[in-house]
Write a structure and sequence with these properties.
Elements lengths: L1 H34 L8 H20 L3 H23 L14 E2 L2 E2 L30 H22 L3 H20 L2 H11 L7 H20 L7 H24 L13
Antiparallel strand pairs: 1-2
Length: about 270
């Protein structure tokens, strides 16, 4: 029995972690591309995973955690970039006047779609307001500019602080905690989106299933690995994220993929 556990922790779990970005989001990407709609999918998911994964890449030189987690972060950046591109290409169109309800059937609006396949909706302007309209920009290039600027700033800080060991260690601990903390809140935007629309339509069950299975694999990998191999920050954030994923599963059980009414709900 111990040999099986040793094999799972040291071989199967790392392979799953590296492949998990693809297995978790491939179906969501394909679905949005086929239906030409990202309605019901929170754009905050790629924001969270891109920023968290970039932070983890810069965290690795100082923390030297397991290489499987570093490779996972790199693969996640690539997958989330594709996910963001597809979601932006097929996102909902301009705001419609309040009071006009619209339903979707199979990703297509009953009363028509935009030329690019996006669905017109009736999102409340109050529900989507953010300071400087952050991550709600109308131009796609603004999203990529933010990711590039964020990565460049981290690289500059990494080079600038490297000569000072004490400051560099503090910086490493800070970006590590920040990256893992951001990743831990991954399910929260989708939970809010589902709650606002009282539906899980647009969010793929396959993504949720992979999240839950991934939580089980990560918990085993984190807590059954040799002491010191996995920092406690990974374990604490993993536990919090697993609890949120269970909550998302409860939503799927309560709401299902019923047809939402976009009269006041917030969709990405």
């Amino acid at each position: 029995m111990s040999a099986i556990i040793h094999f799972l922790v040291n071989h199967a779990a790392p392979i799953f972690l590296v492949a998990s970005p693809i297995t978790s989001y491939a179906d969501q990407i394909i679905s949005m591309h086929r239906t030409r709609s990202s309605a019901g999918f929170s754009l905050d998911i790629p924001l969270i995973m891109l920023t968290a994964s970039i932070l983890k890449v810069f965290y690795w030189p100082g923390a030297r955690f397991d290489q499987a987690l570093l490779i996972q972060a790199v693969v996640m950046i690539a997958v989330q970039s594709v996910l963001l591109k597809v979601a932006l290409d097929n996102r909902a169109g301009p705001l419609r006047p309040q009071g006009i309800e619209m339903r979707t059937m199979g990703g297509k609006g009953v009363d028509g779609t935009l030329p690019n396949g996006g669905i017109l909706d009736s999102r409340s302007s109050d529900s989507s307001q953010r300071p400087y309209n952050f991550w709600r920009w109308p131009q796609q290039q603004a999203y990529w500019n933010f990711i590039i600027a964020f990565s460049t700033a981290l690289f500059a800080l990494h080079i600038f602080l490297q000569p000072s060991p004490t400051t560099a260690q503090l910086y490493t601990s800070l970006i590590g905690a920040l990256g893992l903390g951001i990743e831990a809140i991954l399910p929260i935007p989708q939970i809010w989106t589902n709650y606002s629309s009282q539906s899980c339509r647009g969010f793929r069950l396959s993504v949720l299933a992979n999240w839950l299975f991934g939580d089980a694999m990560k918990m085993g990998f984190f807590f059954l690995s040799p002491p010191g191999k996995i920092p406690w920050a990974f374990k604490a954030c993993g536990i919090f994220q697993a609890c949120c994923d269970v909550g998302l599963g409860a939503q799927y059980w309560m709401y299902g993929e019923g047809i939402p009414e976009y009269g006041g709900g917030h969709l990405a």
